[in-house]
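Posting here for the record, re: adenosine-5'-diphosphate.
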Amino acid sequence: MMSKLTAKGISKVYNGKEVLHEVDLELESGKIYGLIGRNGAGKTTLLSMLTAQNPVTRGSVTLDGKPMWENPEALEGVCFSRELNPVSPNGANTMKVKEYLRVAATFLPHWDREMAQRLAGEFGLDVGKRISKLSKGMMSMVTIVVALASKARFTFLDEPAAGLDVVAREKFYRILMEEYLDTGRTFVVSTHIIEEASDIFEEVIILDKGKLLLKENTQELLERSYHVSGHTEEVERAVSGKKVYHEETMGRSRGVTLLLQPGEELRPGYDVSIQHPSLQKLFVALCGEEAD
Ligand code: ADP
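Prediction output follows.
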């Protein structure tokens, strides 16, 4: 069934400071979205508002047109598996892993107990251990197990790869892809480890200083991104009139990053080198310090 989760003009103000600004977002069923943004960009705030765990200051969040806030019917369709850390609230840390999973099960109407057990086994989680005694990587695994076993149509994971070593991250992305291909569930995954995840994300959502910078098919975005470098004067001529997102100058050479609009082309005939940047490079160009 086609399903849509829609955020309209959502903003969040904490102590007089606006940390999320008028975000419009439409998430469709059957996609894996990557949510990227620097620390403090508002990713966790956005995810918690999309799943009605945190009230919006302004705006609305709906699932198939039905308001999400305090609406059990809509809430059934979503799961936000929060990051666990040594200071997690709600006493999570005093629980054993198996108790935490049991509590999660009571909140998640489509919980798949067999899957939770299987994944805990695959990740080598000791379910008899207290959360507070787990390594950062093990805590990430617990949140991943909750997210996947929730079987929610829209499943949100906040930095699931944080703290996982590269082998565990590969395993996580493989399991995520398998679940996605089997079920067509929608996943929204926030991460700052962009490069290795960029193949997984069908669409990428970039949040910068509380604003939605873009939401776009990952391949299409990379195809319209260019890094042009060479002699400063040549580069300037090649890109004149185009919006430059980032530039670095070294002596007499310059490199600039551009996003071309549909139908827009780079001027041919200049002695410059032209490449498509990686998603990570593009992200740094769009959200790095100098990108204003
Ligand atoms: P990210 O997940 O991208 O790192 P967050 O959503 O955690 O960003 O935070 C965005 C901003 O909101 C930060 O400046 C953070 O300090 C602030 N913030 C987050 N939660 C709270 C809160 N409960 N009270 C006050 N400020 C908060």
